[in-house]
Amino acid sequence: MTELTAPTLVGHPFLRGMLPGxxxxxxxxxxxxxxxxxxxxxxxxxxxxxxxxxxxxxVELDLHVPGRGRVIIDTVGIGELLGLSWLFPPYQWExxxxxxxxxxxxxxxxPAVRALCAADPAFxxxxxxxLLRVLARRLQSTRGRLIARCMQGLDSGV
Length: 158
Description:
Blueprint: E1 2-3, H1 6-9, H2 20-27, E2 30-35, E3 40-42, E4 50-56, E5 59-65, E6 69-76, E7 81-82, E8 96-99, E9 103-109, H3 110-119, H4 121-155
Antiparallel strand pairs: 1-2, 2-9, 3-8, 4-7, 4-9, 5-6, 5-8
């Protein structure tokens, strides 16, 4: 794990355009980490105390389905944010996550970032706006997948 600086963070798509002072603030809660393939980053129901900005590699999100085991529901990769459950109490992971490939990421201490957002309203508004855009994109993506599945069902007469 390596401590980060604002110039290191500036290149990540999630953080592009953020003010240097805001990046300095965020860097205080971040480190550079790597994970091997098949490493389970978190488990559904566990305490969400971290989140990541993926620099390289891919992570599968999965969900335990009774009678079927783990079902892959999405993939998060380069340039994306992994982990949103740290935003909302009770701060529990809604899904599990496992590395498909080696993963390099910026890892953030979620309670520290929540405290930074509370202490600096301008930083908090900027950061939350970025998170909301991620949530909106993921909802749209999920909607598209659901529509595609429904259309497949109609085409097959199901």
